[in-house]
Structures
1.
Amino acid sequence: MTQTVLDAREDRWNRRKAVAAGLGKGWAVLSFTLRLPAFLRLKRRYESISELLFDDLLVFLGGKGIESSFREFAVHGDGPEGTCTVRANPLEVKKLCVEFEESHPWGAIADVDVMDREQNAVGRSLIGIQPRKCLVCVSPAAVCVAGRIHSEEEIKRQVDEILSSPPFFPSERIIRHISESAGTALLLEAAAAPKPGLVDPYSRGAHDDMDYFTFLASASALAPWWGVFARKGWNSQGKSPESLFPELRKAGLRAEKTMFAATRGINTHKGLIFSLGVLCAAAGLLAAEGRPLSAENCTSCGASIVKNIVEKDFSGIKQSSADAGSLTAGEKLYLTQKATGIRGEAEQGFPSVLHAGLPELLSGIQAGLSLNDAMINSLLSLMLSVEDTNILSRGGKEGEIYVRETAKEALSAGGMVSEKGKEAVRKMDILFSEKKLSPGGSADLLAVTVYLYLLTQASG
Amino acid sequence: MKAVKNSAAGTLESSDVLVSVIPAGGSAVSLSVDSIVMKQYGRRIRSVAEEMIGTSGLSGASVMIQDRGALECTLRARLETAIERSAAEK
């Protein structure tokens, strides 16, 4: 056990006590950590697992009528941890926490501590429950942990076994559907070919720093995060959608780290983490409110989550920082061309997806096109309407005009329906790649389109 | 090294230990141990604590250990910190 870990724990303990000391009557503080040895707990893989469990805990308690507030999830020196306050009798809530630990499919690795406002830890013994069993065997956990009874391999094997079951309560099938729709959408979008200027299985398009496998690695690493976003939406029922966004953004930053670790620093899905993160949360929120998961509901709920984001994110940008060279590509484009990119798209409720991408995908499928070909046509129609900052930053206004004109030609030649159209798409791919034009914004919205298609297909 | 003020190190979280040091008159050090794994490791905890108190040269204190199943290395680190804090100048 390193000193960093020990200090982080002491810190957490002191923070908890401080929160407990400030509690009102009838409240208790919950502290969530992973019940795993440090060699596992401190690995990045367990961050999303932990956040998912913490969110599930809040869903679970909410379902039992327990109100929570002051929710905070963070990764400190001792690993991931969640804190919140709950309006409940400490003994009652401890009972529910034990029920969660024992009934959630991954509950065995969750550790939920309860503290009352007198700063007393409310342990299992206080509610007349036997000490917790070890992860691996039937002895009390404390005996095995303190005595280092089990080897790291033995513990790792057991934890993998636990995590091999899907992390969903039966009542949560909808969350699973949302998260799988998003995960699959990333894979389908990456596999669709030929995508002009973009990475697909046969070509790197305009990119020399990434290929199809980079996208597969990224999609696979991001898969657990979609459920995290969906749960956050589910949890925010009854609050204003806008208030959900800061929490989503924090989780999004952590998801980005996961992505960069998987791609060795290449940005594959940063824009998509934003869009799909918001739309997974939107779907979760709709599901919690019992509203149908239609594309319209989902995108308009997404829009209310990111309300005023263009102004919030861009209003502070100044010419002086542009001169100093401290702006991102998106910020510069806003300053010089008022381009709002994906933020604008999201804020307006994803009009390109709703009015171009999705109708084109659906009509292609109805016309009997393969999913691949319908996706390519959908991508072409997205190129016509999306304000693609990837194109604007590399090719400027001229690049945008060029992309739109060629996409229009390919579509009017029938797109993937006709040989002539297919030839036009192949030609676009060669030309875009040469000119280093990569319509990444449109590609992200194709993934959003496919997500909404998969989401609404089964539940609509 | 005389204990000059109340100090604590550690937590009551599972697999951790809370060590408290309280200054007492005289030069003796009293030790109390409470552990959820008293039956299995109580003697070991006590002997580790006695050893560390001995090497630190702590005097005039009452040391209280509330163990929640900590590893031995954790117990040693917490004891060291609590003793240091108790003797430190403020």
2.
Amino acid sequence: MRALHSSVDTRSEVFQANRAAMLERLALVAELQATANGGGGPRYVERHRARGKLMARERVELLLDPDSPFLELSTLAAWGTDYDVGGSIVTGLGVVSGVECIVTAHDPTVKGGVSNPYTWRKVLRSLEISRQNRLPHINLVESGGGDLRNQADLFIPAGQLFHDLTALSAAGIPTIALVFGNSTAGGAYVPGMCDYAVMVKERAKVFLGGPPLVKMATGEDSNDEELGGAEMHSRVSGLSDYLAADEHEAIRIGREIVAHLNWRKLGPAPAQAPTDPAYDPEELLGVVSADLRVPFDPREVLGRVVDGGLFEEYKPTYGTSLVTGWAYLHGWLVGVVANARGVLFNEESQKATEFILLCNQTDTPIVFLQNTTGYMVGRHYEQRGIVKDGAKMINAVSNSSVPHLTLIMGASYGAGNYGMSGRSYDPRFLFSWPSAKTAIMGPEQLAGVMSIVARQAAEAAGRPFDEEADARSRAELEARIEAESDALFMTGRVYDDGVIDPRDTRSVLGMALSACHSNVITGTRGFGVFRM
Amino acid sequence: MTELRKLLVANRGEIALRIFRTAREMGLATVAVFSDPDRHAPHVRAADEAVALGGAAPAESYLRADALVDAALRSGADAVHPGYGFLAENAAFARACGEAGLTFVGPSPEVVEVMGSKLAARQLAEAHGVPVLPAADLSGVAADKVAAVAGEVGWPLLVKASAGGGGRGMRIVRQLDQLADAVAGARREAASAFGDDTVFVERYVEAPRHIEVQVFGDHPGNVVSLFERECSIQRRHQKIVEECPSPFLDAALRRRMGDAAVALARAVGYVGAGTVEFVVDASGEFWFLEMNTRLQVEHPVTEAVTGLDLVRLQLEVAAGLPLPAAALEAAMAGHAIEVRLYAEDPAADWRPSAGRLHRFRVGDSGGASAGDVRVDAGVEDGTVVGVDYDPMLAKVICHAPTRREAAARLAGVLQRAKLHGPVTNRDLLVAILRHPEFLAGGTDTAFLERHPPTTLVAPPARRELEVAAVAAALAEQADDRAGAPVLRAVPSGFRNNPSQLQTRRYEHAGEVIEVGYRVHRPARIEVDGREVPDLAVDTAGPELVELVDGGVLRRMRVQVVGADVFVDGPGRSLVLRAVPRFTEGEHEHVAGSLVAPMPGKVVRVEVAAGTEVAAGQVLAVIEAMKMEHQIVSPEAGVVSEVQVAVGDMVDVGQVVAVVDAAGDGAGGA
């Protein structure tokens, strides 16, 4: 491998302006995350604490190995919706008793921890990550169940939860529930579906129907403890495997359970000892263009992310708008597919296709670094078969079975999003930088296209075209698309696994890659038919 | 002339190592002896051969003259060096060696015998014009006569074991009614320590100086004084700081004391190394105390200022050689101070402490001598300090041009030492060496009464504890990361959404310190939830943490052993105890009620309400499926109720009995 050389001038105005813009975006992300971390606000937090209970993130922190890293997923879920940012649940990838696990924890200070559609998106995504990467799944449960006012949006995904939990178990992926409080009605199935259930004395409440419902259904008088107390479930029903005296003990038992899973990762160990990148990751803040119309060299990113800043480029002189090659990340070999100048031409598409096939032949995970405005349009390119070439690349990406890690650094427009392993293409993890923009096309282009279409329609109908109204609606549309393609908007809808600080890229991708190695890494050998 | 070829050292620890060192230099083969617990002790490895004595307590091992002689014969040794303590001043042993054809490195059995009897030695001294304190033998004195005898001697009195040494068997008595107990106690101690329970009383001089003269005699009849050692700083009559020269003596007094010591030695035809001990009062008047017919613990200070090797002189004299000119014309150069590093807690009434010494590093080269700092240690990393022997870990000696420099340098060496394990007197020694009164030469045996350990050694300031706890936490996190099974390349405590700090709690002397930290950007250090002002992290490794404390880079060395975290800072060394993250939860017993584990028949009930029970005691037995299940008390307490009788059928989960834990006033469930 060869050392990447940086030509970034950290004292340049452009660098400083880029850095300032990125820091501003990061401050906003930090502020939103702090809001999510604050749960339901001081009043509910105090009430919760007064009951001697720990906050969701405190439970997670106690569960994790001291000083081990934790990658929280979709921290800004539900941003831009009517629901609290964060989706009233914590999900993340962390280390418990030396085992990389997916951990989820309801935040009971947010409306009693009831689930909303974004809670479910995070929960189901966490289960998917567990399944794809073979990661034990630990649920720290305290939830009032679903928000009944939105039952229509919840009922079906809730069923998916029970299904996916048992599917994990069937796949030999351990599932653990630590029940700290309410886990009633549908929630009762979480400990019911998990391989292990631990309940906190005098706190856990796990039943299908509470006393009022039982009274309505059968006329029987009953109380919470009889129906679903931790003591009852630990001594009588057996739904609880361990009775914990308090929250700390429940967490300690949870750690013990993981410790005795006899867990072994199935992927290969790192091929070599990891080394720090050659250049300071701090400089990534100034490398990323504040103006997405200005492309930036992904090699500048790689020099600040991959081991030793070393990279072996594949086809460096062919299809140069796309960079492909190999690097080590935390000691593991990865293939890299990175946009260099936005547009994917015929050559770039073919190069990407070949490279993806090569990575599959050698069971090498692939990191996609997106900054693409899509496949090239125009007579010349259509006639040269850009559809066929783009289709080859999408075919290769779709049927590639090595883990994909996707990072949206900047633009992610059009079919470029697909070809570069966007969300629909099942990358194992997908993260965005705050600078990311994801849409079917650029806002300016989209508004322009709409304007041209409207003008053509007016002409065809012989109607006069209102230039003023067009300018207005064009500006409005451009603004709306701009807002909707924003990283916050996309992450709010859980279309990625979170917005990350560019400086954390190496750690985040490294954790994701390590998680992938909990499962076997096998490339696809027989691809589908390519249209040549 | 007797040529010595192979030397057995009838001792252990640092003195055995010390003697082996010179023996090796002189080309002698060496033989060690060892008790059962000393099988892997450093002194055993230092010798060419070793012989097991068996046993652990001194009486079963190092005090067994027959076993020692047998060991010498078995190993083919031709000489026996007794070291100090144990049988070093036991005439019977010296005689037994001689009878077995072995050269005993020391004076003749007759001299050992006469000097071994403090009473006889006094008489001898008196006869040769050496001043002695009034004294009386209480052996055989009728109980009603004791008061009169004591009165003649004059109060206060010191009860001493005739065969004693090292302060053991000594008692100060100020009132008659305490005398009988003191005598009885001294007898017991003397019997167990020296195998001889003879005790006598002597006038006790308040706050004297303890100054001794090193003498050396040879077969041709030379007797020479190798100057004095002042050993006034004592705890419980046990020397802990010794120096040469004494800051108190002038040339004239030195000559007078030296002459008196030489006269006494000459009178008995003394051959070998001996020490004549005196008490000296503030006016310079001195009295003979006793003569030790062996190498003293504190001999290194004499070696430092004279440049002589006293063990070499002992071996040469034992071989029949005359004392060399260097010894006959010895002169003093510079000043040497020795301290005795003990595994003991001065603040807890000098209680000996035991346990594994995880790390022992004194001086620049980890225990070995370097330059003018000498470390005579009998321990090393991993040595278990037991209760069978004297808890002295090492002697540390510093030789410098001036007394002040020697004291300062020695204090620095001690402060930088790494002593991880049992509590030691290190901080006390440092405080003494830096005390203005000590530096002014104000040393007398009451020094530690005037300046008790609790005032000499201030407890660590809160800030010191906090800085140590921060260092401990950072070292532990670094260690955690270095040993992490996965994700080792990710920064410690990485969070993409930081919501709280990593925390670790430590306990020191009842104080709990909670450290919060984030190593990863943005770094932060808190103690008890507040940011520590003026403290920044420079380096955080598993064994080295460098903190910038108020603008000063402070290097902290850390060793973690189980829950104990040893932090050696530039100012002080502290041991912190890590508070576990998870406390042992109370188990599923509901406030003392004990339930049947399965359905069955009660076949035995062994307690009734009111019975006091111990943890683990069987309360009842239930038979089910041909198996007997015991219901045992989980803790000590009192049975408050028994809810079953023999023959009852019980259901699973049914309460059988309720036990109120000891000290728990509330009733059971």
3.
Amino acid sequence: MASAAATLVEREAPGSLILTATGEWLVETAAELDRRLRDLQMPKGKRVTIEAGGIARCDTAGAWLLLRTEQELAAGGNTVDIRNLRPSFSPLLEQVRAGARVAPAAHPRPAHHTIAGFLARIGLISVGLIARGCSILGFFGLVCMTVSGLALHPRRIRVTAIVAQMELTGVNALPIVGMLSFLIGIVIAYQGADQLRRFGFGAEIYTVDLLAVGILRELGVLMTAIIMAGRSGSAFTAQIGTMQVNEEIDAMRTIGLDPVEVLVIPRLLALLLTLPMLTLYANFMGLLGGCLMSFGALDITIPQFFRRLQSALTDYSAWTFWIGLLKAPFFGSIIALIGCYEGLQVARSAESVGRLTTLSVVEAIFLVIVADAAFSVFFSILNI
Amino acid sequence: MSDHPGEPIIQVRGLINRFGSETVHDDLDLDVLRGEVLGVVGGSGSGKSVLLRTIIGLNFPVAGKVEVFGRALLAMSDRERRELEKRWGVLFQDGALFSSLTVAQNIEVPLKEHCDMPLRLMDEIAAFKIGIVGLPEDTGAKYPSELSGGMRKRAGLARALALDPEIVFLDEPTAGLDPIAAGAFDALIRDLKASLGLTVFMVTHDLDTLFAICDRIAVLVDKKVRVGSLEQMLQDDHPWIHSYFHGPRGRAALHSEAGQLTKRGTRVAVSA
């Protein structure tokens, strides 16, 4: 009796049809049975008997196939009768019958596969971006309100939290910021000297000008800001996001703590203060790298380097040194605001923490560079 | 599927689990019989979940032997292991649904992995599994984050049942459910056991579940396990077991169960 494969045999009789099911109606054989059942020519208005006595083993998948056949036959106007099914299988059949009221989940064709859908998607993304911008602006306003509130009640400023954040974001970042700036200084000195040497007449000495302007005005602060976005901005999002997942933020609100005041302001102030300091340090390390490279590879002595540096800082604009430092607190605020904002956007799932952390880094770097471009335009109008 | 009721389907022998200096299981022996519902109870930190994770191979014991379907779990090749995984289903505490997939896709994952099946048939199977575990019709297209805790548990059970396994492992299936949903879950497990001949290994704290559907109870005390029927457990004079079953909650659950036992014939499945 126990034939391994499941089969279904059709037998025609006048005015009626007998389907004989045998073998194992299991999830392993379901694919093959399904194919055979789909090939079946569905009769209309007949008496159909499903002879199920030969089914040796059956699970819910097999039971479903039997039921589906019965339902399809009944829908074709046939009278269907399942006969001789082993009594041990009938509770199984009842179980599946009870569950089978549910229609399969639809697999809609993704809308963006059509032209209209593609356009709609662009529109949706644009509207989403605008809404996001408004929401970030709203958050900025909220933070400003909180800051002005704190300015009126300076005792509520959490000094310990700010100092702790400054250690995490500032002191602990010293090695990486220093190392990278030093290397950038070496790279610029080397590449700059290589180009300037072509002019002859000792034009290499202008490498120092290149270093001074490049690092002090742009690269020092930009590198520091990008490292901070990757290092601290992402940490802010992940920390606040994890608290959001654990409902810690909600708990805070019920206790009467304002999450903006407790979580956002210390981080904002910490980055606002540490980024200029880190920039100063990065500038120093960058110039140090450039200085050593000039000495080693270009035969510019260290006193020569410093004399040239001094005149470079006064020749073009007295502002060269200050411009980089001036930008730092703005970049720091952008990074902290985006990091905290995205952290508070986290829904109650671990997956969204990861997604928004990535987003926060990308957004922060993007906005920092946009702001840097805006500063460039601004300074060129001011002619400094 | 219940060809040989009563034979041991899982055998644990001499199991030792240790984390750092803390011994969780010390020379633990346990048999799970085919077709039974075994409820595992024990105090917090007594190693219930560790035992479950050891049997399903997620935790490697310090010493001891675990046999499932008469085959040593730790000595299996990858291929044997895959064959074995088709024959069991696991429901983790919070469902452990894949968050990037819809409920229907979650249920289809084992089908896709182990059987070569047309998409349409998979959809149909996923749909009636959703119905069997008592979820509403539109659940299939939803993502796990859109479901409540109880619904996630049911969806997790549907995934565990996708391949019609012979054993299901349930880790606190009724924890966090309201009493009505918990009762419905009990009824569901009982019905599935009756119609599919399931063997159920269940870690639970729910005394009602324990009394309502478990054939035998395994109590983890003193780093070992004591197995017996409910009657035996009620007579056991180990202090922890005694206070567990004779405490106020134990007694209340027992009384309500005794009341239900008399009309078990007419009991109907509660649907949430």
4.
Amino acid sequence: MRDGTSRRRVAITGIGVVCPLGSAVADVWDAMLAGRSAVTAREFISAATGTTLTIPAASVPDESLKPIPKASEVMADKFGKLALMAMQDAIADSGISLPQADRTRVGISTGTSMGGVIETDIGFNTIYVQKRPKVHPFTVIKTMFNSPASLLCTIHGLSGPVLSYGITCAASSVAIGEAARQIQHGYADVMIAGGTEAPLTYPAVNSWVSAQLLAPVHQMPAQSCRPFDATRNGTALGEGAAYFVLEEYEQARSRGARILVELVGYGVSTDSGHLTQPSVAGQARPMSLALADAGIAPEAIGYVSAHGTATKRNDATETQAIRVAFGKHAERLAVSSHKSMIGHLVGAAGAVGLLQCVMAVVTEKVPPTANLHTPDPECNLDYVPHVGRALPGLRGAMVNAFGLGGTAASLLVTRPH
Amino acid sequence: MTNEEQILTLVRELVAQQGESPDAIVPQAQLADLGIDSLRAIDLIFRFEEAFGITVPMEDFPQTTVADAVAYVIKLLEAKPKVSAA
């Protein structure tokens, strides 16, 4: 249980996002509330054989890409560039002055599932298809999983804890939760935390299709990912990044920061029954742990940003898991999945879900689950179908992320006080 | 294009990609002043190797002036066995 005297508090003071719905937080939020889907039918071509693969996918629009320092551009894969764009925006949004901060106590915590997929693909293409003797010398730096963190570190001269988590769909939730712990236990005062993913290459897409994780392209491609719907048949793949500035609460307050929410709870555990199939107990556990970590009752939470991948198993299991964790109060929760609109951002999914939680508490509105036309008796909570709605008095929100391999993480935020 | 002109074109491309002005590339310019530190020198060497099909040993690559770097690569090009056109 939480001991207020020995653990410091964590404020979230800035958000940055680059995703298929855009790269300005306000615009992304408006699009989410409107239930807009950025998922389309996207074709990928094998460089070796010309074979094509068409899947439902959502990509970052070109006009949403933001400038980053030229010196960073040449050193970065797309997953690193997207991360840098979002991290820069989060820092600007927070109003914090890094040059004036004690940078030995400023760190980074970033998650990704597949890392430098695009540059890895270019490297393999160079060797196997073009049969050239050497890949580009920066391939190592571009593809290393800690690339996003190193890029930011170098720009700002940060020398606090710089951590990278490779935990599939739970990577960014864990990155953010662990960043909070660094602050809570006094190892850092500021942590820039979040996740990034840029997996849209033929081989990566092929691996997801082969594992039977993706939905076929729907007659209306934007509706391919239908979380909690009776006709759901898999997820769509997305790309993007979302990052937050986490600060020690009192320090944020004394510098006059605009505190969006307090990050009050984090639960991480493992659903270890099966490598890919979830269990109710396994998914309920991080939710219960997060509530206990925060020392608050389920009734304090009004919204859950679900993992909601639109696979048959996840959505039914998650529904029951929410009931286990929240008890009778589950009936009163608003629950939704952003994957219906932007696909699965994998290593960034938890972070995007946290964005939804923060914005929900700040604006007292909850975003919808798009494409929910046919209710499923096995999924019988309030999933806010089609469009978002106002929820006056909303004070607390939770985001779930359940990774392939079992790591399950939940984060909890509440209105600041 | 002479060897020297080809080499300078590659240097200009690298420098421009980093956001520095290619006009600063004069023979006596220091590579370090052009933003070509040891890490970017590796990129430059890679481009020379790809363009000319030679191997440029990193240890001996001069990290001093543009003129020194150009002279070094020209020496390697001239030492390369000539392949007659089929």
